[in-house]
Amino acid sequence: MSTNDYVKYVTQQLVKYMDTPKEERKQKKEEKKTVDVQPYSNQWLGILPFAFKLMVNKKKK
What we know:
The chain is an all-alpha fold and about 60 residues long. Helix content is about 80%, strand content about 0%. The protein contains four helices and no strands. The termini are far apart.
């Protein structure tokens, strides 16, 4: 991607953001907060910590 393309893309995104009403931006921000978030270990480290946790819990029972 050339620099010119990147500047064009960033400008388009900025204009799109500025054109949306403030209330709509706030609403989208609130929706992002309420979306079910994955546990920290899954989000950053993948499925391996989850699998390890399941194995440990299975051995405890």
